[in-house]
Amino acid sequence: MYPRRELTALAGSKAVLLERIYQRRERCAAAAARAARPLEILDLGIARWRQLSPFVRIAAVPLGLLLRRRPSRRARVMGALLRWGPLVLGAVRGMAETRSLSRRG
Predict the structure, then answer these.
(1) How many independent structural domains does the chain possess?
(2) What is the pLDDT of residues 27-86, one digit of tens each?
(3) Shared-domain flag, residues 30 and 62
(4) Exposed, middle or buried: residue 38 (CB in 10 Å: 0-12, 13-18, 19+)?
(5) Is residue 43 part of a domain?
(6) Which of 6, 16, 40, 86 lies 20 to 30 Å (CA to CA) from residue 57?
(7) Is 103 within a domain?
(8) 88: containing domain
(9) Are 76 and 68 spatial neighbours (Cβ–Cβ below 8 Å)?
């Protein structure tokens, strides 16, 4: 049906195409890993936050207010995180709970 030369050319084209697909998949996997890195860090932070005692969580708000008064940039960032962290964590928990409920039903 097909001459041997055409089959050889098709096999070569197929090998080149498979190699390009493999390289594209590798690049996509690397890009997805880079894009997911901030989410991994956030997930780790949430897991550590959940391990803390409730008293430490309550103390985080006044500590955030104290850190807010310090002039350094790092202290301002930490103050903002400690001040807004509980609110953001509650929102994330609510969304996760809603998401898990929607999967069940």
Answers:
(1) 2
(2) 999 999 998 888 888 888 888 878 877 777 677 777 777 666 655 666 667 777 777 777
(3) no
(4) exposed
(5) no
(6) 40
(7) yes
(8) 52-105
(9) yes
Can you give the pLDDT at residue 75? 61
The structure's pTM equals: 0.41
Assess if residue 12 is contained within a domain: yes
Same domain for 65 and 28: no
What is the distance between the alpha carbons of residues 85 and 2, in angstroms, rounded to a whole number? 68
Tokens 């930490």 appear where?
Answer: 78
Q: Does a structural domain hold residue 82?
A: yes
The reply to whether 62 and 104 lie within a common domain is yes
Burial of residue 86, with CB atoms counted within 10 A of its CB: 0-12 exposed, 13-18 middle, 19 or more buried:
middle
Rounded Cα distance between 69 and 78, Å, is 11
* 46, 89 contact by CB (below 8 A): yes
